[in-house]
Specification:
single chain, about 260 residues, mainly alpha, globular
Length: about 260
């Protein structure tokens, strides 16, 4: 048991490192936003959604919900910090009043939803097993919906026969993230970690296969519509799924425990 706990600790620390690196992936995008003093065509939708995802996993990892999940709390706690900064930056630099109001409205809905989940799980469920089931199920369902983003970028790759807007290292990071947190969830079996991260690992492998298939047909020097490129770049933000946080397009699509 001691050996298994040690291995789980090491795997979890590695998972934290990978997940935090993925949380940093939107930094180049926001560097552009800062230089432009405008969000231009970037979407603000992924950041509040990832923020909710991280909050849910922080709740799941709390001792009164699912004990012995400190590393799940730490990585998603970091995610909460990063996503709060990204969301705030978006609101500060967004020149489109309607877009800004949409993000503010989304934040309000997210706050109410999270408060309801927390209140329900704590007030109506009185055992760790039941609380883990309620919160974990919500996390899994939420993460499955978030996987729509990686599927959309994969569809785009197949349609255009180009991997220009599917960054290799982000796909590789998402794959590694999925596998490491799946392994973490298997050591002391936790279906709520294994299921979403296993799915994330599978999608990551599919992305890498597509990259290998369409790399040769990609026209890297071909000029494409600027706005389209900006939107693709703006949404390539990793979403954390599992206990770490997970993946927007390509990255945001995968959660982290």
């Amino acid at each position: 048991m001691a050996i298994a706990d040690t291995i789980r600790l090491v795997v979890g620390i590695i998972g934290n490192i990978i997940s935090i690196l993925m949380f940093l992936s939107p930094v180049p995008t926001f560097y552009k936003v800062w230089k432009w003093k405008s969000t231009r065509g970037f979407s603000g939708f992924p950041y509040p959604m990832t923020l909710l995802n991280c909050f849910l996993w922080v709740l799941y990892g709390m001792p009164f919900v699912h004990p012995n999940s400190l590393l799940v709390v730490s990585v998603n706690g970091a995610g909460v910090l990063f996503e709060t900064v990204y969301t705030t930056a978006f609101l500060v630099f967004c020149k489109d009043r309607k877009e800004r109001l949409k993000v503010v409205g989304l934040l309000a809905v997210i706050s109410v939803f999270f408060a309801a989940v927390a209140a329900f799980s704590l007030a109506l469920e009185h055992t760790h097993k039941k609380r883990s089931l309620v919160v974990g199920t919500i996390c899994i369902v939420f993460n499955v919906f978030m996987y729509a983003s990686p599927l959309s970028i994969m569809r785009r790759v197949i349609k255009t026969k180009s991997v220009k807007y599917m960054p290799f290292y982000l796909s590789l990071g998402c794959t590694a993230n999925g596998f490491i947190w799946t392994a973490y969830g298997c050591i002391h079996f936790d279906i709520n970690l294994v299921l979403p991260n296993g799915l994330g690992a599978l999608l990551g492998v599919c992305q890498l296969i597509l990259y290998g298939v369409y790399y040769g047909s990609t026209k890297w020097d071909e000029d494409e519509d600027k706005e389209s490129g900006d939107r693709a770049d703006g949404n390539s933000h990793p979403m954390k799924i599992l206990s770490g946080g997970g993946r927007g397009e390509n990255g945001e699509r995968n959660a982290i425990p």
